[in-house]
Structures are given as structure tokens and as C-alpha cells.
Amino acid sequence: xxxxxxxxxxxxxILFCIGLYGALVKRNAIVVLLSLxxxxxxxxxxxxxxxxxxxxxxxxxxxxxxxxxxxxxxxxAIGVAILIALFRSRGTVNVDEFNKMRR
Amino acid sequence: xxxxxxxGEFVAFFVLSVIMICGAVLMISLEKVVHMVISMxxxxxxxxxxxxxxxxxxxxxxxxxxxxxxxxxxxxxxxMMTKHQQEEREKAKPLHETxxxxxxxxxxxxxxxxIRTTTFPEPTPFQGSHDNTMAIGELLYTGYVIPxxxxxxxxxxxxxxxxxxxxxxxxx
Lengths: 103, 172
Prior knowledge:
By secondary structure, chain A is mainly alpha-helical. Chain A has helices spanning 5-25, 29-53, 60-90. In chain A, helix 1 (5-25) packs antiparallel against helix 2 (29-53) and helix 2 (29-53) packs antiparallel against helix 3. The mean pLDDT of chain A is 86. Chain B is mainly alpha-helical. Classes of the chains: A mainly alpha, B mainly alpha. Chains A and B meet through helix 1, helix 2 and helix 3 of A and helix 1, helix 2, helix 3, helix 4 and helix 5 of B.
């Protein structure tokens, strides 16, 4: 009857759009990485909402979101490692100045 | 369209979503990078609460462990390894920011319109098992065993790659 599904989907859309805005506007590379994490989390919320309120509820959505969380953790680790390497060679974490592949 | 019954789930959802939206907006608008990470941790915790609400207890605890724990700490380490006194001093780029805001808002408008105009079919009744963690474990080791093993390879590669990347410049 009164399924909560649209509310969860709207919440995920709000989070995704805030993350998108942050990733586009922010200069500090760490903040851009955080915004990316926010977008990935919004997707997780969608997956889990559909795993409860979808047409055929099942655990598959939860499994998928576990896979997404794993990939996001790997992405965060690699992102911070790249950031530290770039900071060593360039001396800044400003995204606008990362415009050359080599010195 | 907006006929929402004030059940316990709705009240909990409302409180959690207020926390999460506040955290996300603060994340965008705060000045110091460390404060941004802290407000982001609030978003992650709120999301974990929402997962509990959706009967996904195992994913909720994984969310707390991985996001609120590991990723936040990793980001704080990243800040400390780079410039930790740094404030976000934005040189104003009004055109760029306006374009990004218009883009994000129009994407939200499209999504909101699509969500509100869709009629979602009634879910078929599903008796969730009593032990969410055990059910997920059984599924992972039966139906999804190949993606699971591939993920372990991915994690190993990412872990070695992160060490190599972060270590390379340190010798110079």
C-alpha cells in the first residue's frame, strides 16, 4: 500500500546530486574522493531499497551492495595512494594543477 | 502522491534522512578538510541506520566498519600526509560553480520526476530469513562464489598497487 520505496529513492537521488556537485566544484582532491564515496553510497541505498521493496524481494541487492562497498574501498585506497604520490611530485593537492602526466 | 502514513519506519527514516542531508550539505560547505571528513562520517552512520531500517543488518555493520571506520580514517591519513593545515580557499569561479549547480539540480529534477511518476508494483511477499548474515553467507558461497573470488583478487591487486604507488616517490 504505502510503500516507502519512493522516499528511499528520492533520498538516494538527493545524496547522489550533492556528491555530483561536490565532485564537480571542489578543488581539494581529497574532497573530490569523498564526494565520489557519497555517490557510491547513494547507489548502495538504491540497491538495498530495491532488495526489500522491489517486485521480487531477495537478498541479491544486498550481495550487490557488498560488492560495491568492496570496490569502493579499493578505489579509496588507490585514490589516496595516487594523491600522496602526486603530492610528493607536485607539492599540492589542488585538482586544477594536476594537468600534466609527467614533470 | 504524498500520502505517507506516520509509521515508526517513516519517523526513523525522516530523522535519519535529516541527519544525512545535513551531513552532506555540511560536507560541501565547511571550510576545513578534516571537518568535511567528520561530517561525511555522520552521513555514513546515518546510511547504516537506514540499512537497518531496510532489514539489511549485515550490510549495515559492514557499512559502519568499512565506511565510517576505514574510509574515514584513510581520508584523514591522506589529509595528514598532504597539507593538513590547508583550508579550502576557493578562488571564485562563479560560472563553473553555477553550471555545476544547474547540472546537479536538473539531474535531481529529472530523477525526482521519474520517481514520482512511476507506479511501483506491489512487492510479492517475501519471508526474509531470520538470520540475515547466514543467508548472505550461504548465497556468497553458492551462487556468487566466482564474483566473490574475483573480488578477493581485486582487493589484493589494489592493496599491492597502493603500496607500490605510495612508496615509489619516498626514496627520492
